[in-house]
Design a protein that fits this description.
The chain has 379 residues and is an alpha/beta fold. It has helices spanning 3-8, 16-26, 29-36, 43-53, 98-109, 123-130, 145-157, 176-181, 193-196, 199-203, 213-223, 231-240, 253-261, 283-294, 309-317, 327-359; strands at residues 55-57, 72-74, 77-79, 83-85, 113-115, 135-139, 163-166, 245-250, 266-269, 300-302, 322-325, 373-375. The longest helix has 33 residues, at 327-359. Belongs to the FMN-dependent alpha-hydroxy acid dehydrogenase family.
Length: 379
């Protein structure tokens, strides 16, 4: 039987746990663990999903829900899907076609894609594959400001329409599972493309990455995170690009207020899927106070723990204008490449659509109402 025939015989996967299990079967122990795990004791990883169970939707019926609109508006753009694909690095570890397979799936469904700095393919290759699909670029501000500016210029040239600066990584989280496995994907060759192709990065090296790959990776690891980064550097970055800047990793309402003071265009309420500060507040629990602090002045995006349609709707009703998903699409990729990602996206879109119908809402925007959710402690 041909590969295509085998693929077409796979039964559809609806449950997140099944998706995770199928992905696990396809991956080495180290790669699966890298994707699935969180930092430390994984308190925050677990809290992210638990938080959704503490909020209950309160539907109102006898509304006309015969047509339902899933589109959202963020930063002056209308997107057909209320979720975006979160930046996830090293996707070549999950599937040989990595980010390109994800980009093809995103293009088919017109789901916006946020490309990671540490992608396996270059930001230009991802952009070419995405065609006219909306795309944002996630930036790790490195220790070398010239390299950071070079990434910005390349992203602008490749048609990315926003820059997502991840602020929750002054250092990589203490990831006990990866440390135990001694697994670091960039050392396996999965997240270096943007660096190795970059003239500024190449200039920092004594010999080219082609001549001494190990030394080039050491340099990448050494400079990727900048623990000295402060709000003042943000003012510099603001001057460097005309693109909207979105800060990813906001959990404290004070950071949301500072973001606005520094001219930032949006925030992502996120704890990096429980991979950074273990013991950090669940993303969903942080959302209401951030929304109160922002008070509609800039868009709020949300991620960490979204697994199904009602999760999307709960986050939107607590103040998000859009959400991002991480692990679900990565498992789809691992399990069945582009088709696996397409399957995950189709099922999530269908679940959101059904959630609207069964909640008496004709649009996702109508879900942005605090009275639509109730915390268990108030019931
Ligand atoms: C394997 C993996 C790699 C990630 N790489 C990045 C990255 O390169 N940049 C970034 O800002 N966030 C990264 N994240 C975090 C995601 O953008 C997102 O915040 C998180 O996955 C959301 O949680 P969820 O997986 O529960 O949906 C990564 C997450 C995973 C699972
Ligand atoms: C030096 C490269 C580190 C990449 C970290 C990618 C990431 O954010 C993750 O959560 O994993």
């Amino acid at each position: 039987m041909s590969d295509e025939a085998v693929k077409s015989k796979l039964s559809p996967i609806y449950r997140y746990k099944d998706l995770e299990r199928h992905a696990q079967k396809k991956l080495s122990h180290e790669v699966f663990t890298y994707i699935q795990s969180g930092s430390g004791h994984e308190e925050t990883l677990r809290a992210n999903e638990e938080a959704f169970k503490k909020w209950k939707l309160v539907p109102e019926f006898l509304q006309d829900v015969s047509t339902r609109d899933l589109s959202i508006s963020v930063l002056g753009q209308t997107y057909p899907s209320p979720f975006l694909l979160a930046p996830v690095g090293h996707l070549g570890a999950a599937h040989p076609e990595g980010e390109l397979a994800v980009a093809r799936a995103a293009r088919g469904k017109q789901v916006p894609y946020v490309a990671s700095t540490v992608s396996t393919y270059t930001l230009e290759e991802i952009a070419d594959t995405l065609g006219d699909t909306p795309r944002w670029f996630q930036l790790y501000c490195s220790k070398d400001p010239e390299l950071t500016v070079s990434f910005l210029r390349r992203a602008e040239k490749a048609g990315y329409s926003a820059i997502v600066i991840t602020i929750d990584t002054p250092a990589l989280g203490f990831r006990e599972a990866d440390l135990t496995n001694q697994f670091f994907p960039v050392r396996e060759g999965y997240g270096s493309a943007n660096y190795f192709q970059d003239p500024v990065f190449r200039n920092r090296l004594d010999v080219t990455p082609e001549q001494n790959r190990a030394a080039a990776i050491d340099e990448l690891v050494n400079i990727t995170f900048q623990p000295k980064l402060t709000w003042k550097d943000l003012a510099f970055l603001r001057e460097q690009t005309h693109l909207p800047i979105i800060l990813k990793g906001v959990l404290h309402p004070n950071d949301a207020k500072r973001a606005i003071d520094y001219g930032v265009d949006g925030v992502v309420v996120s704890n990096h899927g429980g991979r950074q500060l273990d013991g950090a507040i669940a993303s969903l629990d942080a959302l209401p106070k951030v929304a109160e602090a922002v008070n509609g002045r800039i868009p709020i995006l949300f991620d960490s723990g979204i697994r199904r349609g009602p999760d999307v709707v709960k986050a939107m009703s607590l103040g998000a204008d859009a959400v991002l998903i991480g692990r679900p699409y990565v498992y789809g990729l691992a399990y069945n490449g582009q088709a696996g990602v397409e399957e995950v996206l189709s099922h999530l879109l269908a679940d959101i659509d059904t959630t609207l119908a069964t909640a008496g809402k004709s649009s996702i925007r109508a879900c942005q109402a605090p009275e639509f959710v109730q915390h268990l402690s108030n019931s």
